[in-house]
Design goal:
The chain contains 18 helices and eleven strands. It is α+β, with helices and mostly antiparallel strands. Strands 1, 2, 3, 4, 5, 6, 7, 8, 9, 10 and 11 form an eleven-stranded mixed beta sheet that branches. The radius of gyration is 44 Å and the shape is elongated. The two termini are 51 Å apart.
Amino acid sequence: MRRTRKEERPLLDDLLGQDDGRPDEGPREEDDTPEEDDTPEDVGPRKKAGPRWKAGRRRHRIVEPSRLTTRDVLAEAVAGMLQRPGRSVLTALGTVLGVGTFVAILGLTATTSSQIDARFNLLTATEVSVEDVAQDQNEFAGPAFPADADARIGRLGGVEAAGVYWTVRLDPGTAVRSAPVGDSQGGEQIDVVAASPGVLRAASPTLSQGRLYDEFTSRTGQPVAVLGKSVAARLGITTLETRPAVFIGDEPFTVAGIIDDVKRRADVLMSVTVPRTTAEKLWGTPDPGEAKMLITTATGAATQIAHEAPVALRPDHPEYLKAIPPPDPKTLRAGVTGDLDQLFLLLAAICLVIGAVGIANTTLVAVLERTGEIGLRRALGARGRHITVQFLTESGALGAVGGLVGTALGVSTVIVVALVRDWTPVMHTGMVAAAPVVGLVTGVVAGLYPAWRASRIEPAEALRR
């Protein structure tokens, strides 16, 4: 049955959602169900429009954009990590090692620096060196140190020990050997140091055998020697019970003691030390500029002794001697701590870079494996920025977890090392608080490229795969 034009128009209007304002023609069923935004005032008039009004409303309705809430992002990130727990653990392990190393290194640096500070304050702040600079002032001047230099300095208040020393200039080919001669196989090329008894006391040595020579031995020029432990081993001297002797060239010296360790002047351990007067009798006085003086003082007296020493030694020409006071403990401490911090921070940064590369690599592999999932999300309305946020959240969560675990391991390492070494653990609270944030930032930075790569995947291509 063919329809007329008047009968076809309402059907077209209903399908197209158009209303030309003409009254309805023919019987039509009206829908009196109001819309959600209808008010009692406008339900009546709009009710007469029938289905054509509703079609027009549907045509102008705005479709809300796709949204991804914070709760959804976190839920998706946790689900992504738990879906592959083994891989997530291995991925976070790089950050754990990086942040753990970062915290442990900085903590151990601060702890060891405090121990170094104490040692510098104790040793360096109580040591004064005096040098012979007579040749710089007068080329005809002889040795600047008088014969009674030890006694002159000893009369100054605050001096604990003082002595003059220099390295003896031996004839070429002169060797040091032990007795009997045949056991030394021609001798060793070992430095010989002439030193006053005060030098050995100032070095604060620890003797393994024997004793140090004293003022009487030095004043009378006795042929005795003190050896460092390593020198004694090279010469084959292991005990003093057999009364061993060493020969410096053709000159015999009785071994009075063997030094195991020193707190100052570590070169004593690598040389044969003989009394100053004995060396002057056998090999003559030192050349100008060769001799030096070591002075140890009470705490706080070093700077004053440095001012008084040249005048006490040479009141006629104090400019012939140059006293070197101890460096400022704060400057020295800051320099050493700064060097350690720079070195260890570089190592910690390398570890963090390795952890970031691990996270980036694993996240990129995950993007490639989840191409189908990404395409399905895009087809269901997810936008590129939603995919980016999702993968950045996953990598950031892995970095944050790794940072927390690494911080705990680093702090535990510092505490254990300090307890074993009987030190006081030193940790900066700001550094401990910032370490997990460092892990989070490392994870986010590492996930930037994989997340961008995921956001560029086309839905049709992804679903086709």
